[in-house]
């Protein structure tokens, strides 16, 4: 593929410049004035209430949608240049919010091979990629199973494998755990952390703040605009503000807030160990 | 009068004679006005169990009675269906009518209630879920937000005035604001006197709402008791891969460091109360 060109490119993995988007000409903008960069190898979480524009933003990253104004660049390719469409899709893989939309055939290995087959690769290369992708998501032993017999979490990992088999350098996951139970969610989270550790750029959209705090940076969307983007410590400081943005307040912050309102002096922190320390101190100072 | 499961075993027709039954020798009593949380892994039998409460599924062996009525009795079953309202997972997927009012009226109409009464039932049911008949009654359910659609679906179940409300994962897929509102709604309905049975995989929701908790494992009852009792068995729950509320875990961590709380908090508010009182009593002593 374009691997040579990709390796030579040293700019940000994803770059949005003053992006505006709406679905219909007479509608309000769903996204407006969106500018940010994601560095290669970075792990970014996007949070925001339902309808704030997260899924729309995800589709702009892989070129399924293109901006009405402004530019989106992925791996150096401009998404609204039709000559780049193919490069953009190969570069940024998107796992949709509703996983069932993505399953195309019934046997796991065929499902994962679907994308690479459309890239026109040699059969040997396809077989190798399918095995590699299924091993990465821990589903290799299910390669010959019928997709219908899998649990929701397993199915979602197969979907991710299908994207990985395309060898993207950016992986975008749109609320990967929303339909899953906690164990299924932990499985997906583990896969995304390992991919990130292996050098992939990971953008994850989530409603779960315990997942967002694991990211290098968190972006908060509200009514189609970026309200903050920064480290989890910077973003998750003010419980009242988080609530007004329709977000959950992470557990340590909730406890700290409740204690302060009861006159116990502890820091407003995301760090559970630090909170524990402060409580032990105020409960046992002599 | 209560809901009783008496040695209930259930095997799906497709798997009879083969695999392990979906429910195994389940004994359970739910008293009037109780709020029961049902937890367990995917596949542990939660959905199968609740479909027995209104006779959608009938035990392979054993007996289910509601208010003393045996659900095996076909004519009596119709009466029970009126008393027990079942809200499926993602109930909004079943909305179908042109208007919200029509959708909510479906249940009472199916029961053959007089047309004159139906409108009032619809108005009241919508009011109970926090929706205004004049505002949304004439609208298409598909114009509403996901959280509102789910409320309409619940109103449709409440419209036949059941005494028991059974919900399968009512928070699934909602954003934090929707989840908070759903908690509030269920708490209110329970306070109005409804018996509520809620399947959930979120321990925080169960801790915040339920009086008692039933833990299913491989179709059998693993534990059943008051919420604080069940959630005090951290090790056993962890062993079967289930979590406990974060407040309980945090309290255990404090206890391990010598800060023993004079309560078993399950929610952030209860945790903060207990810590605050530990800190204050210390100050008074010291
Ligand atoms: N295909 C579409 N056509 C028209 N409007 C849409 C479409 N998809 C989303 N929208 C609207 O765009 C806004 C943002 O939606 P979305 O990006 O899905 O938000 P989120 O993922 O944060 O919930 C919402 O108001 C939604 O109704
Ligand atoms: N319609 C069905 N036919 C056959 N087996 C089923 C059916 N529905 C559920 N099962 C099986 O019954 C068991 C319990 O499933 P279920 O009650 O849906 O569990 P839960 O709601 O806890 O996830 C699982 O092993 C599941 O595969
Ligand atoms: Mg979305
Ligand atoms: Mg279920």
Topology:
The complex is a heterodimer of chains A (about 290) and B (about 290).
Chain A: H1 3-8, E1 14-21, E2 31-38, E3 43-47, H2 54-61, E4 69-74, E5 77-78, H3 85-91, E6 92-95, H4 108-118, H5 123-136, H6 152-164, E7 170-174, H7 182-197, E8 201-205, H8 209-212, E9 217-222, E10 225-230, H9 232-235, H10 239-244, H11 251-260, H12 272-284
Parallel strand pairs in A: 3-8, 3-9, 6-7, 7-8
Antiparallel strand pairs in A: 1-2, 1-4, 4-5, 9-10
Chain B: E1 3-10, E2 23-30, E3 35-39, H1 46-50, E4 61-66, E5 69-70, H2 74-83, E6 84-87, H3 100-110, H4 115-128, H5 133-136, H6 146-158, E7 164-168, H7 176-191, E8 195-199, H8 203-209, E9 212-217, E10 220-226, H9 227-230, H10 234-239, H11 246-256, H12 268-285
Parallel strand pairs in B: 3-8, 3-9, 6-7, 7-8
Antiparallel strand pairs in B: 1-2, 1-4, 4-5, 9-10
Helix pairs in contact in B: 3-4, 3-6, 4-6
Average pLDDT taken over every residue of chain A? 89
- What is the string of helix and strand elements of chain A? HEEEHEEHEHHHEHEHEEHHHH
CATH class placement of the largest domain in chain A:
Alpha Beta
CATH superfamily of the largest domain in chain B: P-loop containing nucleotide triphosphate hydrolases
What's the main sheet of chain A like? 6 strands, mixed
Shape of chain A: globular
CATH class bucket of the largest domain in chain B: Alpha Beta
Principal-axis shape of chain B equals: globular
- The average pLDDT value of chain B, as a whole number, equals 92
- The rounded distance between the terminal residues' Cα atoms of chain B is 53 Å
Order of strands, main sheet of chain B, comes to 6-7-8-3-9-10
Please give the CATH architecture of the largest domain in chain B.
3-Layer(aba) Sandwich
**Strand share of the residues of chain B?**
15-25%
């Amino acid at each position: 593929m374009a691997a040579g060109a990709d390796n030579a490119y040293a700019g940000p993995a994803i770059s949005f410049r003053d992006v505006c988007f709406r679905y219909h000409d007479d509608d309000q903008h769903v996204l407006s004035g969106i500018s940010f960069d994601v560095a290669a190898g970075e792990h970014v979480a996007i949070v925001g209430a339902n309808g704030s524009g997260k899924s729309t933003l995800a589709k702009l990253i892989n070129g399924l949608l293109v901006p009405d104004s402004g530019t989106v660049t992925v791996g150096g390719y401009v998404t609204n240049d039709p000559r780049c469409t193919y490069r953009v899709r190969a570069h940024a893989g998107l796992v949709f919010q509703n996983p069932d939309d993505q399953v195309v055939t019934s046997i796991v290995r065929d499902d994962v091979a679907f994308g690479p087959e459309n890239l026109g690769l040699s059969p040997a290369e396809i077989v190798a990629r399918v095995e590699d992708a299924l091993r990465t998501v821990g589903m290799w032993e299910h390669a010959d199973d019928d997709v219908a017999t899998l649990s929701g979490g397993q199915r979602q990992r197969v979907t991710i494998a299908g994207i990985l088999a395309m060898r993207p350098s950016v992986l975008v996951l749109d609320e990967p755990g929303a339909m899953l139970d906690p164990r299924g969610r932990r499985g997906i989270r583990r896969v995304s952390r390992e991919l990130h550790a292996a050098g992939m750029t990971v953008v994850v959209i989530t409603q779960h703040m315990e997942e967002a705090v694991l990211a290098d940076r968190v972006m908060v969307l509200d009514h189609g605009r970026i309200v903050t983007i920064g480290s989890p410590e910077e973003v998750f400081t003010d419980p009242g503000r988080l609530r007004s943005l329709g977000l959950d307040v992470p557990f340590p912050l909730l406890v700290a807030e409740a204690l302060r309102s009861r006159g116990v002096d502890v820091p407003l922190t995301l760090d559970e160990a630090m909170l524990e320390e402060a409580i032990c101190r105020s409960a046992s100072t002599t | 009068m209560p809901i009783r499961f008496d040695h209930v075993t259930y095997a799906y027709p497709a798997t009879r004679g083969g695999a392990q039954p979906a429910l195994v020798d389940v004994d359970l009593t739910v008293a009037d006005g109780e709020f029961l949380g049902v937890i367990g892994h995917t596949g542990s039998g939660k959905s199968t169990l609740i479909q027995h409460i209104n006779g959608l599924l009938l035990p392979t062996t054993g007996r289910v009675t509601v208010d003393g009525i045996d659900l095996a009795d076909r004519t009596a079953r119709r009466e029970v269906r009126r008393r027990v309202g079942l809200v499926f997972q993602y109930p909004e997927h079943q909305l179908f009518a042109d208007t919200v009012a029509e959708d909510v009226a479906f249940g009472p109409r199916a029961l053959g209630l007089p047309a004159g009464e139906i409108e009032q039932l619809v108005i009241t049911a919508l009011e109970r879920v926090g929706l205004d008949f004049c505002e949304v009654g004439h609208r298409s359910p598909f114009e509403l937000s996901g959280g509102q659609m789910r409320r309409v679906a619940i109103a449709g179940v409440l419209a036949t005035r059941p005494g028991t409300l059974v919900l399968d994962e009512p928070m699934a897929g909602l954003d934090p604001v929707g989840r908070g509102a759903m908690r509030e709604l269920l708490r209110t309905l329970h306070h109005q006197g409804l018996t509520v049975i809620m399947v959930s995989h979120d321990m925080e929701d169960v801790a915040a709402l339920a009086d008692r908790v039933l833990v299913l494992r491989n179709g059998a009852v693993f534990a059943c008791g008051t919420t604080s009792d069940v959630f005090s068995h951290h090790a056993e729950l962890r062993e079967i891969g289930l979590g406990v509320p974060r407040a309980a875990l945090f309290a255990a961590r404090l206890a391990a460091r010598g800060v023993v709380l004079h309560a078993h908090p399950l929610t952030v508010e209860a945790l903060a109360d207990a810590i605050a009182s530990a800190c204050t009593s210390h100050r008074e002593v010291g």
